[in-house]
Write a structure and sequence with these properties.
By secondary structure, the protein is mainly α. It is 87% helix and 0% strand. α3 runs antiparallel to α4. The chain is rod-shaped and about 170 Å long.
């Protein structure tokens, strides 16, 4: 039989050891399951905290992805012949200096942890060289170097996103919000910035070559593709979290509408009109309006993502606490019931042993008294029945012995009388 080995094992152990072994057999899988659940919850909690750390670094980077493209567009217009942009360029450089100082502070705390320190140092070095050479360089070369610098900033954002876990966020709505913050919106504003800078320069020249027209057309198509991606992300967010969607919906619609209006404006006024008569400043201003609309959305999405991550962290903490309390309560209850069972079991065994010893010493009136309503009650009834029968047998033996003694005494008296008579 399958139970033979288990029976043989139990037969070699005392009752307390049997109970301990059975308790371990039941508790071990529960403890392992609880441990694995807690490990999973702690891992999810760590992910939420790391994502918040990544956002702390990305927030100041957001300023650079606005101000670097603006500096690029102004520089391109200036080098293309519009000297009025020089004072604006100097003001913009002051803003960029403040941006760099803010990022330096966050990089000191989080750069090494997020693997961003080396890349940030490289970006600062490139900017210093570009800043010193921008007024004296060729427009095309300076524009390209700006674009490469901005690409490095976007790459840094992706690095921070990857190392902090934002790229692989486990929740659908926060995943698409993080994707919009790190990828979609930065790409839109960068491509809009390139289109703004290029179109501002073309407006100054008034004549657009075929090559320039093709390049600008390609850029506008890329912007439209990025806008379509943003629109899709917004629809997914609306399906997965209507509450968040309701808060961001107006800014999403505004960013998409203003962006598409600017694309149409460039197509009509720069690409379709030869020679172009539109003012460079107007091209730049409309581009800035479209970019600001997207940055407004970006600035709204960042705190929304922070809020979602904080809520997730709170929910995970509450879940862990609740799970821990439930396990603790039921463990204490199990221990309490086990202690009661052990005490009840030992009390019954002790009572049986004590009553048996009294019977063995001749106390035939001793009976087993138990409060149990379980199998021990049956044992007590059987024991008491046996004790009663045993007492009856003993009493019968006593009566027989008394009768034998009485008969022997009569026989002895009869024999004496016979001998005397």
């Amino acid at each position: 039989m399958l139970t033979v080995p288990a029976t043989a094992l139990m037969n070699q152990m005392s009752c307390s050891k049997k109970m301990l072994l059975i308790s371990i057999a039941f508790l071990a899988p529960l403890i392992i399951t609880f441990y694995l659940l807690m490990v999973g919850q702690l891992a999810a909690l760590d992910v939420a905290k790391k994502e918040q750390t990544g956002l702390q670094y990305i927030v100041p980077l957001r300023q650079l992805i606005q101000h670097f493209p603006e500096h690029r567009g102004m520089t391109n217009a200036y080098l293309s012949g519009n000297a009025a942009f020089k004072s604006k360029l100097l003001d913009k450089r002051q803003q960029i200096t403040k941006d760099i100082q803010a990022i330096n502070e966050i990089d000191k705390r989080l750069g090494a942890q997020l693997g961003a320190a080396a890349k940030w140092h490289e970006i600062k070095s490139v900017w210093q060289r570009l800043e010193s050479e921008a007024f004296n360089g060729q427009a095309k070369d300076i524009f390209t170097r700006h674009t490469q610098l901005i690409a490095s900033v976007l790459e840094l954002m992706s690095t921070v996103s990857d190392s902090s876990g934002l790229t692989m966020d486990p929740e659908l709505e926060s995943f698409y919000i993080a994707s919009s913050i790190v990828n979609a919106l930065p790409q839109i504003v960068e491509n809009l910035g390139q289109a703004r800078g290029m179109a501002s320069g073309l407006a100054v020249k008034t004549v657009v070559t075929n090559k320039e027209s093709i390049k600008l057309s390609s850029l506008l198509a890329t912007v439209q593709k990025s806008i379509n991606a943003l629109d899709r992300s917004a629809k997914v967010i609306a399906q997965s979290n209507p509450a968040v969607s309701a808060k961001i919906n107006s800014n999403v619609d505004s960013a998409i509408r203003v962006g598409e209006d600017y694309l149409h404006f460039l197509d009509q006024e720069v690409l379709q009109t030869m020679p172009t008569t539109i003012e460079s400043a107007l091209v730049f201003a409309k581009g800035t309006e479209a970019i600001k609309a997207n940055f407004k959305l970006l600035d709204q999405l960042i705190p929304e993502l922070v809020l979602l991550l904080e809520q997730r962290e709170g929910q995970l903490t509450t879940k862990m606490t609740t799970l821990g309390l439930i396990v603790a309560v039921f463990t204490l209850l199990a221990l309490y019931l086990f202690a009661g069972f052990y005490y009840s079991f030992n009390t019954a065994i002790s009572s049986i042993k004590a009553t048996s010893e009294k019977l063995a010493k001749g106390d035939l009136t001793s009976r087993l008294q138990l409060d149990n309503k379980d199998e021990f009650a049956d044992v007590a009834n059987s024991f008491n029945l046996m004790a009663g029968q045993f007492a009856g047998v003993v009493r019968e033996l006593e009566r027989s012995i008394e009768q034998l003694a009485s008969g022997a005494e009569e026989l002895s008296m009869t024999s004496i009388q016979t001998n005397q008579g």
